[in-house]
Amino acid sequence: xxxxxxxxxxxxxxxxxxxxxxxxxxxxxxxxxxxxxxxxxxxxxxxxxxxxxxxxxxxxxxxxxxxxxxxxxxxxxxxxxxxxxxxxxxxxxxxxxxxxxxxxxxxxxxxxxxxxxxxxxxxxxxxxxxxxxxxxxxxxxxxxxxxxxxxxxxxxxxxxxxxxxxxxxxxxxxxxxxxxxxxxxxxxxxxxxxxxxxxxxxxxxxxxxxxxxxxxxxxxxxxxxxxxxxxxxxxxxxxxxxxxxxxxxxxxxxxxxxxxxxxxxxxxxxxxxxxxxxxxxxxxxxxxxxxxxxxxxxxxxxxxxxxxxxxxxxxxxxxxxxxxxxxxxxxxxxxxxxxxxxxxxxxxxxxxxxxxxxxxxxxxxxxxxxxxxxxxxxxxxxxxxxxxxxxxx
Length: 393
Ligand SMILES: *Cc1c(COP(=O)(O)O)cnc(C)c1O
Ligand SMILES: [Zn+2]
Known about the structure:
Elements: E1 3-8, E2 14-15, E3 31-35, H1 37-44, H2 48-52, E4 82-84, H3 86-92, E5 96-101, H4 111-124, E6 129-133, H5 137-149, E7 152-157, H6 163-171, E8 175-178, H7 183-197, E9 200-202, H8 206-212, H9 214-222, E10 230-234, H10 239-253, E11 262-268, H11 273-280, H12 306-315, E12 319-323, H13 325-336, H14 344-358, E13 367-372, H15 380-388
Parallel strand pairs: 5-13, 6-7, 6-9, 7-8, 10-11, 10-13, 11-12
Antiparallel strand pairs: 1-2, 1-3, 4-5
Helix pairs in contact: 4-5, 4-8, 5-6, 8-10, 9-10, 10-12, 13-14
Bound molecules: pyridoxal-5'-phosphate (PLP) and zinc ion (ZN).
The site of pyridoxal-5'-phosphate has 18 residues, from helix 10 and helix 14.
């Protein structure tokens, strides 16, 4: 309703919204949806009931690119709680430490925010069958929303994807194709099939960004528009981090906040393409080797939103680094002792927060929000291996 156009995040080329593109035809980079922000600012100004409404993805409908709110596909995603962890903040020496627990979403991960918007758009474009490549959680999420919308869903996942996530997708009725050894190979296969077999392609594209930016909206909303010093996010493809930065900037543009947080991103050791480029100043290069990891959800060799992550971190004066499997496992156990069970990939954000505090990048008075992206029940087998010593971290 308030959306304006598509803009390429790399070369700046502009396209109309109805163009049905996945990437920039000129340079191949990801696209971005822009809005008429003045109109949004006018709409929400002094709208007290809106401010009092509890957070959930579609509360922020004016920032979402859909034409008919009566036809949205929703399972009541978002509205996940923001927990303050007082004991842990004392132990680790933060001013305030919050965890945004995305495991509380309908399928157990933040991906539902994006899937709700993407599948709504798929219906707008009259799709009948959709396809997605995934490390597991996006597959389960698209399967659930596709089922809700009555669409046929095919998921393409690499070997080694946690069985819990595949079982979940199959229970939602999806067709599962295991292809290749890494997410990057599964993605190439899904994109090829989409072209050749007339699927609507879902995944880390601009409409997903729109849904996933609501993680950023909700954090600010839940802190009553007090901006935290840091938001720390695990990086797989980098789309969630990019989206969160977009979301907080949009709240800034319409005058809901007067400040911006600094954004930090965590990659897992062995899958550090973005961190390497950030530290050396060189272009992002695909990592060559597939190495064993406990963080399968973020084991991405060439992150599609890598350049956008670097831009977000540069603009926000933020931070990027890798964490080890050991640091990640320890962080997961710290969260467990606070009553929060996350999958290994999600624990990288707290592992990085701890590392940044130890290195003095985060100050002792600062407020830190860690995004815990997915539920621990999503990957029980990996935690079993860590606990029994079968995966030596
Ligand atoms: C998808 C996913 C990520 C990574 O998000 P990106 O948008 O790919 O960077 C992190 N953690 C979990 C649990 C995920 O499912
Ligand atoms: Zn371009």
